[in-house]
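Forum > Structural Biology > Help requests

Title: Can anyone predict the 3D structure of RN213 ligase?

Hi all, first post here. I have the sequence for RN213 ligase but no way to get a structure on my laptop. I'd be grateful if someone could post the structure tokens.
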Amino acid sequence: YQYLSRYKRKENLDCFTFVPGRIEGTEKECLACLMEFCGRSDPSWTELSNFTHFLNFQLRKCERSVFFSPVVGAEFCGF
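Reply #1:
Sure, ran it for you. Structure tokens for RN213 ligase below:
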């Protein structure tokens, strides 16, 4: 949700890092955001769960990647 809500507001994600335990928005806002980006018009709970697990896995790998470090990111802004 932290990434998706910032993406929706067109914020720069290059310098953002997920902070576990940080609560942002309400449960209703989070669910609406997930449903918007899920890619299904009426997703089931299983589809939302799969979407969030996949997205979380990909974003963690991205944050740990040397190619997306702040040093390299300065050279490839917006990559």
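The chain is about 55% helix and 0% strand. Residues 1-74 form one domain.
Shout if anything looks off.
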